[in-house]
């Protein structure tokens, strides 16, 4: 029954023909559907790619897909080749990351690009922490490379002295004049009992801190590369000199020629203990601690000794707690010295 429509003449509304299909334009809807499908496919591909490539990050540290990354200088040195072999045999995969200098390893560790590094002694690490406001920590000791005292030579090319105790009272001993080795050399002479200090020794001790009246010998700073040649010249100016390891072989000397050298047990040698370093949050990481233990095994240390030409004195008996305490003390000395 029709209803009245005031807009239609006569008020009658024509009936719709339900047999005729109603045509609607679906173009806009189809575009929306297509866009949604493309987005879903792209999202699926993205998350599939993310899962595939995120496997390494999700794998346990020390596994083949997520090796322990250790920064060093000299990745092909025999100790690192042997260490990698020994670690793999014990189920830990490592990646030795080679650096060409000594300035990039700590920033890389602090930034999380490395898990550990091994290239520095405690004094170097302390300086880095203080200067950069960081808190990298030692995880284990490796070795100390002793600083030796060598006798002067007579005109026949033979050493005048075979023991540091034989140095004449009042004679002169040369030490390197660079800041780091100068302080260390004074510490070596103090440990040998031939110089006495006015106060405690630190890694920043200078010649002016020596109590000359109470010391057996006098000390004169010289360029490190000149000391060996001066000792071998046959003159009487020096009775002995402290020679950096870098110049021992160049001078035709052997580390065993030293009439005295420091060792890993002396207080003065502590700042020069070479260590593995980690971020502070990782000092209790079991995998990283296992890496240190593997490095401290005989096959690896034998390879290290080979690389050092027999000069390394192993420092593998110090605990992490002891090394951390030494680091804290050195950092305190740095701040007190204003360095």
UniProtKB/TrEMBL annotation:
SUPFAM superfamilies hit by this protein: Periplasmic binding protein-like II (SSF53850)
The subcellular localization recorded is: Membrane
Q: Which family does it belong to?
A: Belongs to the NlpA lipoprotein family.
- Where does the chain cross the membrane? 31-49
Pfam families reported in the protein's UniProt record: Lipoprotein_9
Q: How does the record classify its membrane topology?
A: Lipid-anchor
- Originating organism: Bifidobacterium choerinum
Instruction: Identify the taxonomic lineage of the organism of origin.
Output: Bacteria, Bacillati, Actinomycetota, Actinomycetes, Bifidobacteriales
Q: Which UniProt keywords apply?
A: Lipoprotein, Membrane, Palmitate, Signal, Transmembrane, Transmembrane helix
What name does this protein carry? Metal ion ABC transporter substrate-binding protein
Q: Which GO terms describe its cellular component?
A: membrane
Name the predominant localization. membrane
